[in-house]
Amino acid sequence: MAPRHVVPMSTSHAARGVCVLGTEVFLDTRRSTPRGAVSFDVHATPAVTVHMIHSPTTKPSLDARWPLDPDIEVVVTIDVTSRTVDDNQVKISYYDREGHELAVAWLYLTCVEVSLDVDWSRSGRVKSKGKDKDKAKWTWGPDGQGAVLLVNCDRDSPGTGGTDSGQADIRTPADLQDMSVMLLRTEGPRAIFAEYPVVLHVPESDADKVRVFHAVGGDAYPLYKPVLGPDKLSYVLDHAGHGDSTFYVEGLAFPDRGFTGLVSFSASLLEVPHKDSPGTPIFTDTVVFRVAPWIMMPNTQQPLEVFVCSIKQGPDSNEAFLEGLRALLRKANCKLTVCSEQDSRSDRWIQDELEFGYVEAPHKTFPVVFDSPRNRGLKDFAFKKILGPDFGYVTREPPGKSVTSLDSFGNLDVSPPVTVRGKEYPLGRILIGSPLPWMAGRRMCRAVRDFLFAQTVQAPLEVYSEWLSVGHVDEFLTFVPALDRKGFRLLLASPNACYKLFKEKQQQGHGEATQFIGLKGSEQKSIDEILADESLRSDNRHVQRCIDWNRDLLKQELGLSEQDIVDIPQLFILTNSRADALFPDMVNMLVLGRHLGIPKPFGPVVGGRCCLEQRVRELLEPLGLSCTFIDDFFSYHLLSGDVHCGTNVRRKPFAFKWWHVVP
């Protein structure tokens, strides 16, 4: 609660003061009460409204005089800005028992306007705040209020080494579009502001999260003066009383461990008793911003651009893979961006290196690439080739630079929007692959996990992926769009479904049909041999139990039923107690709307068709999906990855506004 503005009254001399439009001024009448006084009355000029605060039983006498009761308080407000200094007067007269006037106390008031305003309604425009609204609170939900701030993490300024937030100046007008406007309105006699300065300030705890620029100069040659930020907590406004002063606010930090994302700014009117005094606030107006979170997009969002690396040299060249990918993208009518071998430094695993997301404010939305700490050949690709105008960049590095395979972003996914036990997740839930909760093992680094949890709007969920050699969630699950039910299906790799299919084909007399496998080379095994391999069956019983543990968790935490899950035939083999896909991992697919790019499994051919491909078509095509099988055997699968691992997709942001989420 803001401190009360109290003005002491005196019968020996007139008091002078300043009040802010519409705010209460409490008059301290007790110090000026003359000896023998038992009552008083109050009169004021027309612009002043007098309020008497008293107990229900306290009433004035017939002549409107009030008893000198210590519980009675006199409060005045003014709702018209002064045109001249001291143009409002308040007179308090004191009376003895006989009704004689003993003394008079005068107060001369100058009313000014001081108002700090932001886009509290989230309309994209700054409007004057209603008196019934609390600018110092930020609330979630469709009926919520509070301004939004973007982290200025793109690079609009040519020639700068990093993101625009790293620059302490504004080098291009385009940079202003990434900032939020804050208006400081000061109205009143200009002379009064020389005596009562207005200061804009930010708490020390927030100062390193934001930077504020003041627009000064004319329209022809505007200048943007940095006035608040990591090295400056306050700024005294020059030329107060001239109307609106425009400030541009940029975020410097995303929500993270120890930072909720909320930042506040205040404008205070100071009373300065003498020139060496720092001044004390007689009025403070505070506004709050929330820094926009980084948001991931699920496979159900429209694809805009597919990224892939070109590997031209050697036996594991992906030239044939690229041809298959181009054919798929022609069907999906989607843009393809090929990262050169020089730019990737022969690192083909672009899914592992980065994740595309976005940030949004009511006035602006732009994509932001999250660069993983894996730091292999593609380490500099996102920073050097993707960061640019209206394309932001963020990264998180663990202390000591120690990373594991689980720090790669193939180990990061997000569900489509879901409702779980009545609670809505309109932006889906992030999935992070981890060891079982009660076990030690490889785990995504705390720096990344803390960042993801701090974004709040996609409520991360840790699933069990550490049973895999590589350890990524995209090796056993993915989401595809569907025209019915929840609008999607969860696809899970399923050894049981594969054994069931192979058993069917064996019973139909196709036991000699062969499966092309190749963990260490390109060898073949017949259906009969696979079904008779007890060691392989034991491996897959273990794998199925691991997937079933996740199945139950995902059903519970995503609000799914069995009808929302599709089992995709897949076999695995254990190496040093961890699992690898025995043949190209079909859930490790590229999802482009209704078009799916699926690793070609080279399964047993029955009736002229790969029975694995045929079964997947039977499962997915009734959902309105189109299956394209792409040969990634030598270029990706034998290197412990598949189609999804070797591609990445930038997608269209959600239409749903993240600030409408109810966490």
Description:
The chain is of the alpha+beta class and 663 residues long. It folds into three domains: 5-112, Immunoglobulin-like (Sandwich); 118-291, Protein-arginine deiminase, central domain (Immunoglobulin-like), CATH 2.60.40; 295-658, L-arginine/glycine Amidinotransferase, Chain A (5-stranded Propeller). Helices cover 15% and strands 35% of the residues. It contains ten helices and 42 strands. Strands 2, 4, 6, 8, 9, 11, 13, 14 and 16 form a nine-stranded mixed beta sheet that branches. The protein has a five-stranded mixed beta sheet with strand order 10-18-17-12-15, with no helix packed on it. It has a four-stranded mixed beta sheet with strand order 1-3-7-5, with no helix packed on it. It is elongated.
Mean pLDDT: 93
Query: How many beta-strand runs?
Result: 42
Fill in the CATH topology of the largest domain.
L-arginine/glycine Amidinotransferase, Chain A
Shape: elongated
Biggest sheet record: 9 strands, mixed
Category by helix and strand content:
alpha+beta
Question: For the terminal residues, how far apart are their CA atoms?
Answer: 26 Å
Q: What CATH architecture of the largest domain do you see? A: 5-stranded Propeller
